[in-house]
Structures are given as structure tokens and as C-alpha cells.
Amino acid sequence: MKEIDMEIFFSIKEASEWATEYLGKTVTTSNISYLIQYGRIRKFGNNGTIQVSKQELIEYYKSYSGKREISWKNQLGEDLNWALSFEQYKEAETTKHVHRLHPYKGKFIPQLAEYFLDGHTDNFKKESYFAKGDIVLDPFSGSGTTLVQACELGIHAIGIDVSAFNALIGNCKIIKYKLPDVQIEINRITGLLTQFISDSHIIEFEDSLLKSLCEFNNKYFPVPEYKYKVRRGEIDENSYGDEKEKEFLPTFNSLVKEYHIELKQDTSDNFLGKWYLHHIRNEIQFVFDEIKKIKNPDTKKIMAVILSRTIRSCRATTHADLATLKEPISTIYYCAKHGKICKPLFSILKWWKTYSKDTVQRLARFNKLRTDTFQVCLSGDSRTTDIMSELEKKNPVFAGLVTKQKIRGIFSSPPYVGLINYHEQHAYAYELFGFERKDDSEIGSLYKGQGREAKESYIQGISDVLNNCKKFLAEDYDIFLVANDKYNMYPAIAENAGMQIVNQYKRPVLNRTEKDKGAYSEIIFHLKKCE
Hints:
Distance between the termini: 48 Å
Number of helices: 21
Helix content: 40-55%
């Protein structure tokens, strides 16, 4: 080692030896190379004499990221590939452009798909598996992340999903729209919706309600004094919140009566009837009726997605229960999340405007990145779908290309056993748009549980998908499946499909939507044909 301007520099080998002693655990030269390659520390010198700064190593290992990496590896094992944590990306980057056109539970971040689809190699990914002009298949397409990233990288892609609504979302992300036409329809419907709302007195009602709530909350829930007193135990939040909620309720009821506001719908025997207030439901139907008048089929589809995203945000629930619905609410309530009295939504107009503007901006950003390649999501069961036959109906030119060069491989994230009901998360859209639900065809659905029978059914289901899809793959295919295989099912799945697991990439999952923020990992299984 040597000292330059009072700063100590190490070679990579010296750095690994120093870090091993500093941390009291083995740090390999590959670990140091990873820190350089992924921008955790800087590289000094050239390829012949690469050096790193001792001070930067110390700062990294003392940082939150460094501590978390060490802690998670202690819990989950040293084979945890921290390069695949993508911790360096902000949320705006992991939800870039069309990836956030619509909420979707259970999707992986685009950087993960990009890592395996692009042509780079590194200390962990020793060779590239896909090249520009190749065709990739995602038989569990979900919200279409693989399709979008393939389009960015110049790779053709086919998705399949048993959920008709998922297929709509995926296809809407990769359609090349006439954006002026989309904007014209947004302006038309927004103007009509504004007029429709003005006839219902909702605007005047909400203005009066918000004014009264503001005065009340400023008086009884002053910021930041109120939360400070709650933290110090000077105020019992539950009893005080209940007390003030009851105190404001007469004001709310008086305004409802004054402006002739209907709260609950006449029926609550379906999702739209149960989880939307009367005026919200009327506005939803009004906008949907206007969307049905649109002539351009692509514009009609993206407008339907904007409406779906809007109504998802307008369910009659508290702010704390948006992720997991508990009981519908039609009146004011004490909100522990915001520390004041809050109200449900009475109109979709605000969110319709917000998501309309956001959608157009995201589509425009993606247009600058997309390549002239084919992407399509087929709606069907990947266990039985005849890919060539269905693709011929959707895009004969693309079908001809697949016939000529075959599908190079698969990148996909199959559903986890007994974790998510993929149809129920978009129940409102199925009811409004009239899509056929195929809950019984979901592999690993939540309602099937995680018992022995459910696991056996899952193994059989994923195996059947691979056996069906491999008929359309190139001879020397590469398959990458993202899974949290805590029940060790994928060795059996690979065997059933006549494949072998040639590599496993174990990655930490840092940004989960669940409340459990503990150490959690998933594995990317690399499968190839048995030799």
C-alpha cells in the first residue's frame, strides 16, 4: 500500500485483506471489485494498477447500505448477490416511464429484467444470454415489465398472462400511440366530467366540507404540537381521535343534507357497489360511457387504463387501509396516518386529471427510448396456449419472425405459492370492463393456500408451463425464473420439465410493499435443457 497526499490507497488484494480484518469476516477480491463496478467506491489508477481509497472503504462499511449488506448476508448467507439489490436506484428510476402506468402487486423492478436481458457481463453474470434482435418469452407476463425492457433493449418479446386485465396493462405499456389523439380525448372527457360534476353540487359540498375540516383540524390537531404530545403520551390518540370524530360528525351530516349528497349506493353485493360512494360510482360510469365512444382502439385502451388507475385510488376506504381494504367508509374519520380528521373521496375528477397528465408524460418519455421491435402480450393459460397460433392472430409478421428464428429464451417471475390473488387485486376493473375472470386457472393463487396439495399443484402447474413453452424455444435456450423458493420446489420443477438448474442468483429484495421490512431474498434460477 502507499500514501498519496496523506490518503491511503490499496490494491484490490490489499483492500480485501484490510476489509477482512476490519469487518472480522472474509471479504474477497470479488467483493471489492463489486464495490467498484457498482459505484459504491471509486477506482483510482488504470487497469494495470487499480487502487481504492481506504477512507472510502471505511465510509461505505459505516454507511446504512454497507451495514445492511453485512447484516443481511449474516442472516441470509454469503451467497447473497448484493449487486442485484439495485439499492443505488431511487424509486423514480425503478418506476420509470410506463412501468408506473398502473399499480400492480408482485412485479419485479425493471433493472432486474434489464440485468439479464442486456449484453453486459460482470463478476456475477459471466456471459450475456440475449442480444438485439433476439426474442424473449415471459409466460407470466403480469404488468409487462419484461416486454417493456425488451423494447428498450432492441429485443422482441412475447408475454402470456391468464388475466385478461393484466394482458391489457402489458399491451398498453408497449403500444405506440398517437399522443395528440390521446390528449384530445382526455380534454374532451375531462371537460364533460367537469360539467357533469357541476350539476351534482359535489364541488360546493367538498369546498364547504374542506373549509370546515381545516378550521376544526387547525384548532384540535395543530401541527406539530398535536403529534408531539401524542409521542410524549400527553394525549391518548385513540380516545381523543374518537372524541373529535364524533364532535365533527354533526357538521358533516348537516352539509350532506344541505347539498343533497347521496353517500351509499342502493346495492353493495359487488365490488363496485360496496367500495365506491354513490357520486363516485356515477362519475365512473359517466367516464366509462364516454370512453366507449372513442373510435381509435389504442386510444380507447389507454383511456380505460387511466380510468382503472383513477378508480383504484377512489375506493371508499381510509388512508391507512388503501393497500389492504378492511371496511368501506362513507363518512369522516380520525386518520392516524395524518393525525387529523380526514374524509373519503366524493369525486374522481382530481385523480382523473392527475393520472391523465402523468400517463401522457410517461408515454412520451418511453417513446424516446423504445426500439423498432415487436412486443405483444397474449391472454391465455401458459400451460396450454399455442403461442404460434395465437401470435398469428395478433401479428402475422411477428409470427413469421418467430417461425424463422425461434424464441431465444425466457425471463419471467412465476407467481409464488399461496401469496397473491391476481384477479381480485383488480376486481373493480373486471366488473366495470366486463372481463371474464379465470381465478381457477391461476397457479399458486392465494385462496389455494400453501398446504401440501397446493404445493404439489404449484409444481405441476409451473412444470406444465415450461413443458408447453419449450416447444417454441431455440435448441440452446436459456430460462431465468425469479422465485422465492422457500419450499425448495424448483429442483422438482426443473426435473419435470426435462431441464437442469445450471446457476442460481440469490438477490436481496430491499423495496417491498409489505410492512415486513426484514431480511428477504429471492432466487433467479437459470435453467437449460438437460444434456
